[in-house]
TrEMBL record, chain A:
NCBIfam families for the chain: CP_lyasePhnK
Domain of life: Bacteria
Species annotation: Ancylobacter vacuolatus
Gene3D superfamilies with a match to the protein in the record: P-loop containing nucleotide triphosphate hydrolases (3.40.50.300)
Protein name (record): Phosphonate transport system ATP-binding protein
SMART domains: AAA
UniProt-listed InterPro entries: AAA+_ATPase, ABC_transporter-like_ATP-bd, ABC_transporter-like_CS, P-loop_NTPase, PhnK
UniProtKB/TrEMBL annotation, chain B:
Organism: Ancylobacter vacuolatus
Keyword Transmembrane: no
Name of the protein this chain belongs to: Alpha-D-ribose 1-methylphosphonate 5-triphosphate synthase subunit PhnL
MF GO annotations: alpha-D-ribose 1-methylphosphonate 5-triphosphate synthase activity
Family the UniProt entry places it in: Belongs to the ABC transporter superfamily.
Length: 258, 237
């Protein structure tokens, strides 16, 4: 872990008409650290992820990001081309529904290879080899490389989405409920895979989840959101084992122990 | 043994009360005015009856529970870091380099085999994976965990087997300060003795150990002194 933040959010707010999506959120994410954003539906956590990844435009506040050359850039000041390059190369975005993050009518190999081509890979053989390598990393058999994800199970699609996102070695990955909607046994496999890859590649991750067990397993630090605001932050085990805010105590005590 | 002048851990004026917002803000006092020092090469037991706050105090030192008042200063090289007030990121770094924690129960990670669970802290320290896994196997062998279990995830292990995995994971890497919460609770006599030996080796390596040891024999064999937390608990009530 280094001591210069990779991403800095400063006073982020987002209103949807009169409704508040997100209010005055400031946070920092450092290289190699996993930050969990937890809260219930409607707490503003997905809005926050949209703002941090520049998919949404803030009503107030800004997001700064440290580019590979070390420069800290206000993301709103980047041109469209610069932003697109950043999203293709330096960032990943793993969505809850794999159909939103994959090209469903393109082969598994194509889904992974497309990101490589976007960063300038041209040699077909090299692209195919790298795609095969990544399919193996996410535990998809090599003989499925020419199948398209419509033929895959939910868990396989999600693993393919992870390969597609990580193949360009991003420094920051956004994840929106990556295990939501999967069977429990499939979740465990996916979590273990994410955990291993994040550590191996030294990724910074901002993960939105309503599942506190997922946050505990994957994240170093967490922020708890309610009504669009961050109400509690800290080291993950501290927030979960000694929650201070009434709402966080309610969240933690509402989890059923299996 | 003559004590070096600088403590590894220095706890001073620590107070903690849980406030249960879901129980009309009920207050559960834990400790008040807790203070003691811990030096390199000694093993100190927290003593007192169940519910006196031993485990909570240990968790406060690790930064797992928050502190309302006072300081918990841990030596990190030339620096003393106050766990009670430092930033989350500094605390994570302090845990990575300086503090080890052996909890009562293993938090099982799905699908990861026992030997890999144990090797993880070494790999995190930068030890080559092959060497880390070999050392993990050696330590598990010492703790009499049958080799046929090494590649299996500990979820299905017995309590005693899980605890040995947990101890191995907590002890495998060098950390100047070790916190142990009932490390021998579900172990048989032979394995308790192995843990006592391991503790003695850590002490010889200059590690300072703070722990909860309910087993009187283990406490006698492993610990140099006992800090009674009853007074800290009384002051809080």
């Amino acid at each position: 872990m280094t001591d210069t933040p990779l991403l800095i959010a400063d006073g982020l707010s987002k209103n949807y008409g009169n409704r508040i999506g997100c209010r005055d959120v400031s946070l920092e994410v450092y290289p190699g650290e996993v930050l969990a954003v937890v809260g219930e539906s409607g707490s503003g956590k997905s809005t926050l992820l949209g703002l941090l990844s520049t998919e949404l435009e803030p009503s107030a506040g800004r997001v700064s990001y440290r580019l590979r050359d070390g420069r800290l850039a206000d993301l709103a000041s980047l041109g469209a081309a610069e932003k697109r390059l950043l999203m293709r190369t330096d960032w990943g975005f793993v969505r809850q529904n794999p159909a939103d993050g994959l090209r469903m009518a393109v082969s598994a190999g194509g889904n992974v290879g497309e990101r490589l081509m976007a960063v300038g890979w041209r040699h077909y053989g090299h692209i195919r080899d790298e795609a095969l390598d990544w399919l193996a990393k996410v535990e998809i058999a090599g003989d499925r490389i020419d199948d398209d994800p419509r033929a895959f199970s939910g868990g396989m699609r999600q693993r393919l989405q992870i390969a597609r996102n990580l193949v360009t070695r991003p420094r920051l990955v956004f994840m929106d409920e990556p295990t939501g909607g999967l069977d429990v046994s499939v979740q465990a496999r996916l979590l273990d895979l994410i955990r291993g890859l994040v550590a191996e590649l030294g990724l910074a991750v901002i993960i939105v989840t309503h599942d506190l067990a997922v946050a505990r397993l994957l994240s170093h630090r967490m922020v708890v959101m309610r009504h669009g605001r961050v109400i509690e932050t800290g080291i993950t085990d501290q927030v979960l084992d000694d929650p201070r805010e009434p709402y966080t105590q309610l969240l933690v005590s509402s989890v059923l122990a299996a | 043994m003559s004590k070096p002048s600088l403590p590894i851990l220095s706890v001073s004026g620590v107070a903690k009360t849980f406030i249960l917002h879901l129980r009309e803000g009920a207050r559960l006092p834990v400790v008040n005015g807790a203070g003691f020092d811990l030096y390199a090469g000694e093993c100190v037991a927290l003593g007192g009856p169940s519910g006196a706050g031993k485990s909570s105090l240990l968790k406060m030192v690790y930064g797992n529970y928050r502190v309302d008042e006072g300081t918990i200063r841990v030596r990190d090289g030339e620096e003393m870091v106050d766990v009670a007030s430092t930033s989350p990121r500094r605390l994570i770094k302090l845990r990575d380099t300086t503090m080890g924690y052996v909890s009562q129960f293993l938090r099982v990670i799905p699908r990861v085999g026992a030997r890999d669970v144990v090797a993880e802290p070494l790999i995190h320290d930068g030890v080559p994976p092959e060497e880390a896994v070999a050392r993990a196997g050696a330590l598990l062998a010492r703790l009499n965990l049958p080799e046929r279990l090494w590649n299996l995830p500990p979820a299905t292990f017995s309590g005693g087997e899980q605890q040995r995995v947990n101890i191995a994971r907590g002890l495998i890497a060098h950390r100047p300060l070790l916190l142990m919460d009932e490390p021998t609770a579900s172990l048989d006599a032979a394995n308790r003795n192995v843990v006592v030996e391991l503790i003695a080796e850590k002490k010889r390596a200059g590690v300072a150990i703070l722990g909860i040891f309910h087993d009187a024999e283990v406490r006698e064999a492993a610990c140099d002194r006992v800090i009674d937390v009853t007074d800290f608990a009384k002051a809080a009530a």
